[in-house]
Write a structure and sequence with these properties.
Elements (H helix, E strand, L loop, with lengths): L1 H15 L6 E12 L2 E5 L5 E4 L1 E2 L1 H6 L11 E12 L5 E12 L2
């Protein structure tokens, strides 16, 4: 009976843990919305396009206005893999947090 109790306890703990999504962070300058994506460029000239933004981040900084064009942010984001219409996988980048750096 003890063994059954231990098994249920382990399963309960394992099942109840939320799945953590890996977060990525980049420092980049906001250059605007291009083709529906929030676009940033880092100091090396690498562009980052984010198709979505978390509601908390969008309330903190309204990227839909021109107020933050040319400003540098620390962008925290998630990457999700989705499947397209031809069963091809592609990555979607979602902003989860923004902090002004400069």
């Amino acid at each position: 009976m003890k063994t059954v109790f231990i098994i249920f306890m382990v399963l309960g703990i394992t099942v109840s843990e939320p799945i953590q999504q890996e977060e990525f962070i980049v420092e980049a300058t906001y250059i605007g919305i291009e083709e529906g994506a929030y676009t940033f460029v880092d100091d090396d000239g690498l562009e980052y396009e984010f198709s979505d933004i978390d509601i908390k981040a969008s309330k903190k900084y309204d990227l839909d206005s021109n107020k933050f064009l040319g400003r540098k942010f620390q962008v925290t984001y998630w990457m999700e893999t989705e499947i397209g219409e031809n069963d091809e996988e592609y990555d979607v980048y979602i902003i989860v947090s923004l902090d002004l750096v400069g």
